Amino acid sequence: xxxxxxxxxxxxxxxxxxxxxxxxxxxxxxxxxxxxxxxxxxxxxxxxxxxxxxxxxxxxxxxxxxxxxxxxxxxxxxxxxxxxxxxxxxxxxxxxxxxxxxxxxxxxxxxxxxxxxxxxxxxxxxxxxxxxxxxxxxxxxxxxxxxxxxxxxxxxxxxxxxxxxxxxxxxxxxxxxxxxxxxxxxxxxxxxxxxxxxxxxxxxxxxxxxxxxxxxxxxxxxxxxxxxxxxxxxxxxxxxxxxxxxxxxxxxxxxxxxxxxxxxxxxxxxxxxxxxxxxxxxxxxxxxxxxxxxxxxxxxxxxxxxxxxxxxxxxxxxxxxxxx
Length: 324
Hints:
By secondary structure, the protein is mostly helical. The protein has two domains: 1-138, Orthogonal Bundle (Farnesyl Diphosphate Synthase); 187-324, Farnesyl Diphosphate Synthase (Orthogonal Bundle). 74% of the residues lie in helices and 1% in strands. It has a two-stranded antiparallel ribbon. The two termini are 25 Å apart. The model has no long low-confidence stretch (mean pLDDT 94).
């Protein structure tokens, strides 16, 4: 087993060798650009690490890991278009740096390239990876549509929100780990259990992201704190605050999230006060812990050594204690 940093370095080296100059440049340059913007590389690292966990050779999982990363960045290119976002990881988004049509077409090419990487595996592995990928890719699209739908709804429920973040974020984490297990030749039972570990950890990760968006340290979070509040996003914090509030406070919260004042700082502070006094902030932290514990319970079902279970648990713990 390697360290997280070593997996990252090996993956980035492989990614750099994948990024080659091709024609037409206006199709491929935007792809190289978005793949080169960095990010946590969390999903491909999980694929490589999981392959080693199940006694496989992580180098054989590099194409599967790259597929996950290419697909993830494809989804970001199209999400940025839908959100009309100007920045991604502190740099111009693809459609801003080039144009809308380029963003759509380069994104389409990335989705095809992600599938193409499975061709480097023998037939049974190819079939299992492609089947999982197709299911996951469609769920990510469904999650994105739920997210779009929720922007214009004031009656979103907690279960609906959890389903949205499961599909939009968590299933790709679960798939990244299951792909590593597939490449390693793990049993179907172990493949499914490691998927559930990743899926639950992915939900906890997104809830943690919601929490940090409101209460994170601006110096370490990496993006504007309070961004979800400014954009009137109905996050878990908001929905729980609404659930816990009386009729008067609930109406005030709905009103606060229905417009953008000239001075957004006061709106952010007021919303954070709602989250704290209603008990929503504490409930969100508890939900993060609950989903993390669900993930850890899946580890007990895996047919791997206790040392490797401890490594996966330590990874999950570090992920939930992050400040970025």
